[in-house]
Amino acid sequence: RRVSELTAAILLSQLGRLDYILSRLRKAKRYLITRLVDVPGVQLTRIPDPEGDAGVSLTFFTDTPERCTRVVDALNAEGIRALRQYSGRPLYMQPAVRSVARQPEPLCPRSTDFISRCVFLGLTTTFTRRDLHDITTAIRKVMRHV
C-alpha cells in the first residue's frame, strides 16, 4: 500500500531535517553513555556500529529481571520515562503474536534472558542538557538504592 500524496509531501519536507534530528539524538545518547559507563549495576548495550546508531533510545541491562522491574518503577517514580524492553518478553512470546500451538518455554534462552533484564529509555530531539543531566542523576540514584 502506498502513502497518500499529502503524507508524502510531509515526509519529504521532514527529510530535509533528518541530519539535524539524527545529530541531536546521537549527541544526547553520547552524553548519557559517557556519564553512565561507570555506574555499578548498569551494563550498557554494546553498539557494534556507533556511527550508524540513530540514537533513538538508550538501553541497559540489570543483573536480574526482578531488579529490572524495580529499576523501571523507581525511574518512573523519579519522573524518568522508562520501560521494560518488550515488557520483558521476546516478541514471539507476546500475546498479540504468540501462536496457540507454541510451547511457553523460551526458544532463544539468551535473548529471553537479555530482554528480561533490559531497561529502555526513549530519546527525543527536545531533551535539553538539563533533561539529560536529570536522567543520569536519576539512574545513578536508582542504581545505588534498588
Write the layout of secondary structure elements.
Layout: H1 5-15, H2 18-36, E1 43-44, E2 57-61, H3 65-77, E3 83-84, H4 109-116, E4 118-122, H5 129-145
Antiparallel strand pairs: 1-2, 2-4, 3-4
Helix pairs in contact: 2-5
Textual characterization of the structure:
The chain is α+β, with helices and mostly antiparallel strands. It has five helices and four strands; from the N terminus they run H-H-E-E-H-E-H-E-H. The chain has helices at residues 5-15, 18-36, 65-77, 109-116, 129-145, and strands at 43-44, 57-61, 83-84, 118-122. Strands 1-2-4-3 form a four-stranded antiparallel beta sheet. The longest helix has 19 residues, at 18-36. The mean pLDDT is 92.
Give the biggest sheet. 4 strands, antiparallel
What low-confidence regions span 5 or more consecutive residues with pLDDT below 50? none
Radius of gyration: 18 Å
pLDDT averaged over residues: 92
Strand content: 5-15%
Q: Kindly, what is the distance between the CA atoms of the first and last residues, rounded to a whole number of angstroms?
A: 47 Å
Give a count of the beta strands, DSSP E runs of length 2 or more: 4
In one word, what is the shape?
globular
Instruction: Specify the oligomeric state.
Output: single chain
Structural class: alpha+beta
Helix count equals: 5
Strand order of the largest sheet: 1-2-4-3
What fraction, in percent, of the residue positions are helical? 40-55%
Could you state the order of secondary-structure elements as H and E?
HHEEHEHEH
Short characterization:
The protein has 146 residues and is of the alpha+beta class. It is built from five helices and four strands.
